[in-house]
Amino acid sequence: MRRIFHKVLIALCLSPILGSLPASVAFDRVNGEGFASRSPVLASRGMAATSQPLATQIALDILKRGGSAVDAAIAANAAQGLMEPTGCGIGGDLFALVWSAKDKKLYGLNASGRSPLSLPFEYFANNGHNKIPSYGPLPVSVPGAVSGWFQLHQRFGQLPMDEILAPAIDYAEQGFPVTQLVAYYWNRSVPRLQSYPGFRETFMPNGRAPQEGEVFRNPRLAKTYRRIAKGGRDAFYKGDIAREIAAYVKNQGGFLSYEDMTAHRSEWVEPVSTNYRGYDLWELPPNGQGIAALQILNILEGYDLAAMGRNSAGYLHLFAEAKKLAFEDRANYYADPAFNRLPVQQLISKEYATERRKLINLESASKRYDAGNLALRHGDTIYLTVADEDGNMVSLIQSNYRGMGSGMTPGELGFILQDRGEMFSLKEGHYNQYQPGKRPFHTIIPAFVTKDGKPLMSFGVMGGPTQPQMHAQIMINMIDFGLNVQEAGDAPRILHSGSSQPTDERMLEGGYLSLEDGFPLETRRKLVQMGHQLRFESGPYGGYQAILRDEEQGVYWGASESRKDGQVAGY
């Protein structure tokens, strides 16, 4: 394994689409894998990787001013809330993993908000809802991101918050050019959200969404950021901002109240891990889905994937089946631990993986699995990671859930409230059943890797249920297939969809596989013969950022996602 990581450091059927798929995706590079979009970025003092180049530069500026990795991450996240409202903002939630070089310890933060205390479970059935709506006031839960900023800053910050938020405030007032993918998703959101009060006034200057390259300003958000910079956490949760949010939601027929805002708290939680071939992958426990990646890796550890090969039908088949197994447990057991005794340690144990592995047929795809008998894709997101000169590393993910969120755009505040409450189950007795004051199941998950108790890599992959699948694939690409930190993200990805969900949907026909361009025709043909349904899809494969630490040399190796607008940079 040391040698491998040394290399790291240095319902369409198959037949109608086979003819249109290229045999591989290649870049004209003199070395490295043919699918790699670029070489890793190297720097020794500090590094940032985000899905918005201007946010990456802001993070580096904060580091150069003496800010910590956490200061830079907050500054970048604030900028992305302005520049990528299609995936994040202070109307949403936040999760983070932080490696403290001083403490030699990994910390976990759950900054997700809860459902309204005044909204009873019976309301939905009494008003004809068999699921929680995707948009409008009903899926709105308390936004936890600002609380997360201040929790992180209190423990790990160096610079004052007004200095950290200053770059985002300046861009909000002066404007910034909208990038390609953000413009695409922004325009796609308009038909769904433009009818909600406040949305057009804030996000549709001149009566339409901005196009790629157009300069956008958000003076409303600038004012809100100034209030937060001056008044701190309480300005958002106990001051006029909270009152404005509550009044707006009430006027739209919703239930989120001032009392819900004042009662909010974020929580430091203990990360959990599994060891995969000598490397520890760390995730946050539920209410997120991070442990699904651990379950997938535990199951796959029983097979010689390196001998099978990265493009083989055998590997892809096993990956899909392991994912199906993990997602059955995800659908049944992942929920707010404050309302349930969750069997987390059982789910991520090697013994449990051994039993679940026995259910896989090596020759054919399963139509369905049941969740383990234990005693006890529509979201959009931003992921960023920052590392500083002292060796501190931050893995941070933040989201409004469904693209630009619920559409609820309160008054003059300049941001949209999340629709994460859609992720509750309305099945009575379900672990993830809707209850007042409860945190919904979450898809956004940061990740971190250690080796022999030392920090190795901070990484994440955006994209709803894509995320745990891609966390596992990044690990497999690097450890089993010997790819470097950039190649591991650029490699063609496998995505299985159609599993059972924590929102009551059940997998009965095996779901389907989507494969990015680059997998051979023979592999696709073999997978169909094994009973997998294949579909051609463009765009659902997630967005990756990573920073890997070579402690011996004191060098950071960074990677950014070729499928997004992002950038990794260091100094």
Number of helices: 21
Q: Approximately what portion of the residues adopt beta-strand conformation?
A: 15-25%
Q: How many strands in all?
A: 19
User: Which spans of ≥5 residues are poorly predicted at pLDDT below 50?
Assistant: 1-24, 375-379
Q: What name is given to the CATH topology of the domain at 2-39 and 271-379 and 447-545?
A: Serum Albumin, Chain A, Domain 1
Oligomeric state of the chains?
single chain
Report the major sheet: 7 strands, antiparallel
Shape: globular
Q: How many angstroms separate the termini?
A: 29 Å
Tell me, rounded to a whole number, the average pLDDT: 92
Tell me the name of the CATH class of the domain at 2-39 and 271-379 and 447-545. Answer: Mainly Alpha
Name of the CATH superfamily of the domain at 2-39 and 271-379 and 447-545: Gamma-glutamyltranspeptidase, large (L) subunit, C-terminal domain
Helix/strand-derived category reads: alpha+beta
Please list the strands of the largest sheet in the order they lie side by side.
1-18-17-13-12-9-8
Bin the helical content.
25-40%
Q: Any idea what the CATH architecture of the domain at 2-39 and 271-379 and 447-545 is?
A: Orthogonal Bundle
Structural Rg: 22 Å
Keywords: Acyltransferase, Glutathione biosynthesis, Hydrolase, Signal, Transferase, Zymogen
Signal peptide: 1-25
Pathway: Sulfur metabolism; glutathione metabolism
Family: Belongs to the gamma-glutamyltransferase family.
Task: Walk me through this protein's architecture.
It holds the Pfam family G_glu_transpept. This is Glutathione hydrolase proenzyme. Residues 1-25 form the signal peptide. With 571 residues, the chain is α+β, with helices and mostly antiparallel strands. The chain has a domain at 2-39 and 271-379 and 447-545: Serum Albumin, Chain A, Domain 1 (Orthogonal Bundle), CATH 1.10.246.130. Helix content is 35%, strand content 17%. The chain is built from 21 helices and 19 strands. A seven-stranded antiparallel beta sheet has the order 1-18-17-13-12-9-8. It has a seven-stranded antiparallel beta sheet with strand order 7-4-3-11-10-2-19. A hairpin with a 2-residue loop joins strand 12 and strand 13. Helix 4 (69-83) packs parallel to helix 7 (161-174). The protein starts with a helix and ends with a strand. Residues 1-24 and 375-379 have low confidence and may be disordered.
